[in-house]
Amino acid sequence: NRGSDSKAGTSGKVGIDLPRSDSDFWNSYNSYIEKGVKAGDVSALPRTNSQNDIGKLVANVQNFANQGAKAIVMAPQDTGAIASTLEQMAKKHIPVISVDTRPDKGQVYMVVRADNKAYGQKACEYLGAQLKGKGKVVEFEGALDSINGRDRSEAFASCMKARFPAVKVIALATDWKGDVASAKLQTTLASDPDVNGIYMQAGGVFLQPTLALLQQKHLLKPPGTAGHITIISNDGIPEEFKAIKAGQIDATISQPADLYAKYALYYAKAALAGKTFEAGPTDHGSNIITIPNGLEDQLPAPLVTKDNVDDPDLWANQLGKS
Amino acid sequence: MTDPTTPTPDGPAPPPAVQAEGVVKRFGPTLALDRVGITVEAGDSHALVGRNGAGKSTLVSVLTGLHVPDAGRVSFQGEPAPAAGDTAAWQSKVACVYQKSMVVPDLTVAENLFLNRLGSGRVRWSALRARARDLLAEYGVEVDPAARAGDLTVEQGQFVEIARALSFGARFIILDEPTAQLDAAGIDRLFTRLRDLQRQGVAFLFISHHLQEVYDLCSTVTVYRDARHVLTATVAELGKAELVEAMTGEAASHTAAWHATSAARDTAGRQGAEAGPEPEAVLRADGLGLEGAFDPVDFAVRPGEVLGLAGATASGATALGETLVGLRRATAGRTLVAGRPVRPGSVPHALGAGIGYVPEDRHRQGLVLGRSVAENATLSVTDQLGPYGTVLPSRTREFARRMISSLDIKTSGPGQPVSDLSGGNQQKVVIARALARDPRVLVAIRPTAGVDVKSKDSLLGVVRSVAERGDAAVIVSDELDDLRVCDRVIALFHGRVIAEFDSGWTDRDLVSAMEGLPSGGDKGAEE
Amino acid sequence: MSDTSQLTAADVAAPDRAPSGAPRLHLSRYRDLSLIPVILVLGVIGFIVSPAFLTSDNLIGVLQQVSELSLLVLGEAMILICGRMDLSLESTIGVAPVIAMWLVMPSSGSATYHGIGLLPGWTSVPLCLLVGLLIGGFNGFMILKLRVNGFIATLGMLTMLRGLQDGISQGKSIVEVPRSFSYLGGASWIGAPAAVWICLVLFAVGGLALGYLRHGRALYAIGGNSEAARAAGIRVDRITWIVLAVGSLLAAFAGVLYVGHYGAISSTQGDGWIFQVFAATVIGGVSLNGGRGTLFGALTGVLTLQLVVNVTTLGGVPPLWDKFLYGAIIIVALIISRFASGEKQD
Amino acid sequence: MSDTSQLTAADVAAPDRAPSGAPRLHLSRYRDLSLIPVILVLGVIGFIVSPAFLTSDNLIGVLQQVSELSLLVLGEAMILICGRMDLSLESTIGVAPVIAMWLVMPSSGSATYHGIGLLPGWTSVPLCLLVGLLIGGFNGFMILKLRVNGFIATLGMLTMLRGLQDGISQGKSIVEVPRSFSYLGGASWIGAPAAVWICLVLFAVGGLALGYLRHGRALYAIGGNSEAARAAGIRVDRITWIVLAVGSLLAAFAGVLYVGHYGAISSTQGDGWIFQVFAATVIGGVSLNGGRGTLFGALTGVLTLQLVVNVTTLGGVPPLWDKFLYGAIIIVALIISRFASGEKQD
Ligand SMILES: Nc1ncnc2c1ncn2[C@@H]1O[C@H](COP(=O)(O)OP(=O)(O)OP(=O)(O)O)[C@@H](O)[C@H]1O
Ligand SMILES: Nc1ncnc2c1ncn2[C@@H]1O[C@H](COP(=O)(O)OP(=O)(O)OP(=O)(O)O)[C@@H](O)[C@H]1O
Ligand SMILES: [Mg+2]
Ligand SMILES: [Mg+2]
């Protein structure tokens, strides 16, 4: 697996750490990264995987540094505990590209992520519109200690409060666990049978359990029919698209795994080349903003509904090909 | 090298119940059995005696298939022993009461009795309990078959194991020190049962350190010494002295304890004389009582005196002993050492006040089995083995060596785990621990349980010597041999003092007192 | 009783033994019922916080939610009773179905997951169970033959099997599974999910076996004092081995139910469950040192844990304090049960 | 030694007893060294897979990476040796610093996290340690006074404390901490991180205490047979309580180091560590049943685990199979050490 190292494209190698290997979304991301590396976008050291463990991540990054990496791509799932590592890298003048999360502290060359607050915002607006501003919505929150989960929850909550005060939100802590979500949803349905909206913060974990439960309870009514529960998901994985086509869920927000990978490598290359960026719109329809500890390229996260579910530009629709 | 010319009561006709030849068993470096043999004729009751660590229990585990011998042959009724591991087959040949407890504490008495004999199909618990009750009744043990085995007293537990072994209907039964934990009454009940079985032609291999029992029960005796076979003879032809000599390998100096006693009595007397009418008691219990165990008692132990607390099962004697050493908090009265009251219910304070303790059950309270002999022997003196609360290994080993040699503990060295010692030697380690602090008062509960004759004398001698040097000792026991060492014996029965004897009591008086039938006077000078 | 003359000591002992004997009995029985009061308390609280609590919908829901966990608890309880432990159950529930899928799913086609299509789809359930058996067998081999420390060995297996699942499934959830595989977990018989009936039956069978069959009782003897058990002619190693295998078998079966229940083989299925499994088993009165406890107790343990979740959800606990409350309730429950049984726990 | 006539038996014994003392000792010593061969093997592999392995940078890195974990292992080892267990350590490492911050951080200002600013910043470290002590003390109270099952009690604490951390920190990582708080974890003394030196010293002190202090030795007696220890006049409950408190204290201190090391109080810090803690401790030769093992052994345990991670990372194992390999290596290591010590483990 070190074969790809040999054909050094630009000067110096990039150390790439993959955050975890047990989630559909991240595995797609991983595969895009591999594609990119194979395609010679950059020459990379052997990929490491921190299995969602900050200790491993820090160790891996240090190993990259020891092995002479000139730039580092990581996706720290823990945005706090990466701080001192970022500072070390800054001292060593190794630029760091942080994918998907925005480190709380420590210099980064570029943060490549879609705006998670926007996710919550969009979900809220969609549900609010669909429910005509009233009803009961169940929200599967991710882990409380995950920045992405928190951003989505906060944005969703504040938007609901501000714009759809008549909608009652039942927030359920799930720790990103499908079975927990299913159990709590089942309980909630027993106490509030009139739930008519669901927002799941991660389709990857919540989709199947939720569908299975609703199936069992005969609550999977096609859109438009009475008693239909409006469901909006998040991630934009192929299963969600299937569900949308099948009319089981209404929408999802496509978290662009492909763009994450593409621009992670893009900025890594740029960093090797010593390029610098500043805030403002980019050539790829996104927007770079300034954050206290660097820049953040906020990639677009399109809302996917029945209407645009077949859009070939959506990453999930490209998986089959190439 | 068994002695083939072993005289057998009933001719050569039936094959021997068990025959073992050239059995060798090593435990790591320790040679536990060195080419030994034994032949138990059918229907014979055969005694196996030897000093602690001679290899008796090891032979037992070889004969019952628990250990595979490194060399040698074992055969039952003439046919070779079953394959190792095929425990079921072994059980059909031989039943055994092991020296170490083989009850499952969390199971009921009934289930322990019929362990793995619950029959096929559904277990009928009520029926099982009924059978258990009958079985136990044969031994006159009043135990609720539904009680947790772990909650039984040591004695009752022992009887459960005996009843289990004898209930197999095996033609050959091994009993490894079954009487070590029994009181006189219990031993009677056991022996009547065994004699019944003898009459039915069941063969026994009987291991005990009470030589008298050997003479009472057995017709043949085999002696092991240091893992080797020494002799096999008919009991009738072998005098006690010769037997002891065979075991110890030296001219018997039995009755050592006796000299000790008489000597001690003078010294005690003399000191009494010098110190005037009321010498300061080393240990005094005034109104000491424990709810539910024993009524308040008063007694004082003078310097140079050994006091005996005689009590059978559930007499409260042990409870009294355990209260004295602070393991149980007295509900009435107090304990004084040299006039100063001891904080009740606190072992450290009792130790500090100079009370040494030999607990009743060495496995429960005596030893940390996983740890070395040295560590166990010095457990209560860790504060004396180095400056500033340190424990120096050198001093620990040194200390342990002294104990090992003075108590004649058979071990491969201070570093050997106690769990590898033979039963009797483990007991010696416990006593070493009690003596480690040079206690002013030594409270010993059944100090000689499972200890061989010679060691018994030397141990009792040790207890005496505590008294000799002007301190005092209390022996809680129902073994007459232990009590003989005492200058004074208080007999408890069901939590009450029922009689008090000066030394020179007769066995009959004391035994009947322990059984609750005080024969009034404490006179009678013959032994 | 033979002749009285020699019975004095025992006779006298009897009076004060009797009382000490009786309570014991109750105690040991209490030990398994000690969670009943806890469950009652939870029931009352649930009833107060929400009328929905006592609806059959909700209660059946609770049962269904614990169905998979309870099978792991069933297995672990038996393993603990015979004095061992197996941490790898939480990974077996995930890897067994995945291996089965890998063997039966066609190597090409529309399905998002491609296996090697070695065997027809209907074999998937038997395959899954077989894999469970093999895993348990291997655990037994390490623990009983190689004599390595069971805790670490199964902890290593836990990690290894989870890794194996990631490797084989490429970390994906597997959504398309053969009909037969997802049937049991999804079906519902006479008004309640099939899984619930199955679990209840399995617990009943297990309970009877442990209570009334010779080999069942042997587990207690082995766990309580394996040396005594061996001396009594019980085939300690063989039975332990079988128990370990059955435990993993149950875990694999739980995997089958899980897939039907949640509609996919999740890549994190069972992840982190082992704590709950132990919590449920031990709080239910099964001793970590072996030889004590009943399956019924273990079952009450699982139900208690899930009822806590159910009640806190109905009560609408703020997510931020959800976990805190859960832990606190566990501790309170533990204390209640300890004083309900009046027995010191160790 | 009284009269020689008594010694015959011993004398006779001497010949074949004498040699036996040594080997026994060795065995028990092997038990603690049994991981050395494993570590050597790992070293060789590491050297083969990557030249970077034997660089001081890398090796010191390994030491630093385990510094926090090793403190938990130190605490757990002592607790296990005296026959108890404490699962809550993994949450203590996180909640203790958070509570300290909550007390010292100003309730308003630029910092992203707002506490109640009750106390000045320099008190944060002592506060953190104090919190650790209190947590350990509470565990001791539940286990020794209420006599509830220690496993469940501390498991409940694990969840509760983690929940408490989420609650107090609103699930956020806390980035701004007082200088004094982050110093130790970040500083580096004579060429190596301070944390490494501190851990080594603490292990040395602990090892000496357990080996050569009476109260240290007492742990072994208590863990081996608490009743015997009690009968020998050892204050069992008091010492156990102290050990539990010290264990949590160490966990809290590990928290301090963690914060300095990673630059923030992570909201998930310590999450899921307890498995590694037990793995390291037990693979290092400490018995789960108490009374056996040494701190040195435990230390080799931690190092082994981290070396595995280090080597697999350097070797560039494909991510999907990384976990699998890790688990497999643990098992192999376990088997090697078992046969190296030649001792059956249980
Ligand atoms: N499991 C073991 N490991 C190592 N050595 C052992 C083991 N069991 C017994 N030994 C050693 O074998 C020798 C014989 O032990 P054994 O128990 O047979 O003596 P014994 O005759 O039964 O003594 P006692 O009368 O005290 O019971 C002793 O030296 C003992 O230390
Ligand atoms: N702590 C206690 N609380 C209540 N009852 C007790 C307590 N200790 C002992 N007993 C009861 O008091 C009686 C005497 O107990 P003890 O253990 O002293 O008998 P013993 O003399 O030791 O008999 P054994 O020789 O069987 O040990 C027994 O019936 C016992 O059940
Ligand atoms: Mg013996
Ligand atoms: Mg007693």
From TrEMBL, chain B:
Biased segments, Low complexity type: 255-264
Keyword Transport: yes
Coiled coil: none
InterPro entries: AAA+_ATPase, ABC_carbohydrate_import_ATPase, ABC_transporter-like_ATP-bd, ABC_transporter-like_CS, P-loop_NTPase
Region (Disordered): 255-278
Keywords (A to Z) from UniProt: ATP-binding, Nucleotide-binding, Repeat, Transport
CDD domains membership: ABC_Carb_Monos_I (cd03216), ABC_Carb_Monos_II (cd03215)
GO molecular function, one term: ATP binding
Annotated Gene3D superfamilies: P-loop containing nucleotide triphosphate hydrolases (3.40.50.300)
Entry keyword annotation includes Cell membrane: no
A Pfam match: ABC_tran
Every ABC transporter domain range: 18-251, 277-519
Protein name in the entry: Sugar ABC transporter ATP-binding protein
From TrEMBL, chains C, D:
Segments passing through the bilayer: 33-53, 59-80, 87-105, 111-134, 146-164, 184-213, 239-260, 272-288, 295-318, 324-341
Listed InterPro entries: ABC_transp_permease
Membrane topology (UniProt): Multi-pass membrane protein
Keywords: Cell inner membrane, Cell membrane, Membrane, Transmembrane, Transmembrane helix, Transport
Subcellular location(s) per record: Cell membrane
Organism domain of life: Bacteria
Keyword Cell membrane recorded: yes
Function according to Swiss-Prot or TrEMBL: Part of the ABC transporter complex LsrABCD involved in autoinducer 2 (AI-2) import. Probably responsible for the translocation of the substrate across the membrane.
PANTHER family the UniProt entry points to: ABC TRANSPORTER PERMEASE PROTEIN YPHD-RELATED-RELATED, AUTOINDUCER 2 IMPORT SYSTEM PERMEASE PROTEIN LSRC
Record's subunit section: The complex is composed of two ATP-binding proteins (LsrA), two transmembrane proteins (LsrC and LsrD) and a solute-binding protein (LsrB).
Identification of the protein by name: Autoinducer 2 import system permease protein LsrC
